[in-house]
Amino acid sequence: MKFQKSSLIVMVVSLATMAAPSSAQVVDVEAVPRPVGRVVRVSEAPRVDGVLDEALWQSIPAMDDFIQSQPQAGAPATEPTEVRIAYSDDALYIAVRAWDSVADGWVVPSLEHDFPGLSTRDGDILGLAFDTFLDRRNSFIFLVNPFGAYRDGQTFNDSRVTDFGWDGVFDLATTRDDEGWTIEMAIPWSTLRFSGAPGPQEWGFNVLRRVRRKAEDSYWAPLDRRDPLHRMSKAGTLEGLDDLRPGSGLRIKPYVLADNRRGPATAPGGEGSSFEIGGDLKYGLTSTLTLDLTANTDFSQVEVDEAQVNLTR
Fold it and tell me: Minimal CA–CA distance to 29: which of 220, 185, 288?
């Protein structure tokens, strides 16, 4: 009996040792050096179709080795992620391969733009944050799910202020297969704001991969579980950007509104037709200053605050 009891104890210890990751695999997310990634200039733009079959993507080193923030902070991500970035005179190109050991295992609660009423924590997400001035405080952020729905916005003061009312202009395509999912993006320079000074630039950068079924978040630049993706003071760095030329960012959005009122329900004197025209203009005066003009505001598109009624004492 003593021999059997001793054997059982040894077996339990052995299994526990096998299940726990070795100390060499787990890093201190606060102390580990911030990673550095390199982007590559290309002369020909890749086709944005969510299929990474162009030779240029194979020639660019991948940013991988993601580290968990949860459930086990500092441990390697259980599902590999590879990020590659290129650029041309016209745009920034991003290719992401999110490998997944379970075919069709992702969770996608919404296909609406900006996921209204939902948190990005409700489903699988790939997030990108760009600190284009390398001030370690502000960022442009893009969050994409496996079916191509996305949320975009800006963050300020090292995550203290967020603005997800900002809408960027970019091309996006995603595909899915039995081994995971893929993202391909092209962001025109006119969408982003950055220094237009000649010469090389460095940007702050980080990537989030969320696997919802595992409640797992992992980052390219490791973060503690309390830190969001846009904590740019702890982000990594992108190198290789050179002689970028910002676009003007000119956007014109006109509108035409016409109506015709008639019939028995029309108030006396209210019959007739009306016609209105107006629009919005946005123009980037400098890399940090944008002009917004509106002519004849279309109030029919104004969002009204939802009424709040307090029935408690």
Answer: 220
**Which residue type is seen at 137?**
R
The neighbouring-strand residues paired with 274 are 259
The C-alpha atoms of residue 72 and residue 218 are separated, in whole angstroms, by 10
- Cα 216 to chain center, whole Å? 17
* Residue 190: closest CA among 54, 91, 278, 309: 91
Closest CA to 190 of 166, 169, 215: 169
DSSP string of 181-194? EEEEEEEEGGGS--
Let me know: does 86 contact 39? Beta carbons within 8 Å: yes
Please give the structure tokens belonging to residue 136: 């370690």
**Cα–Cα distance list, 248 to 151, 192, 224, 284, 290 (Å):** 24, 10, 38, 5, 10
DSSP state of 107: -
Torsion 186-189-193-194 (CA) sign? positive
- Rounded Cα distance between 240 and 37, Å, is 9
**pTM beyond cutoff 0.90:** no
pLDDT in tens, 60-105: 999 999 999 999 999 999 999 999 999 999 999 999 999 999 999 9
Residue pair 219/126 in contact (Cβ under 8 Å)? The answer is: no
Span 137-165, pLDDT tens digits:
999 999 999 999 999 999 999 999 999 99
Q: Which two tokens stand for residue 202?
A: 């460095």
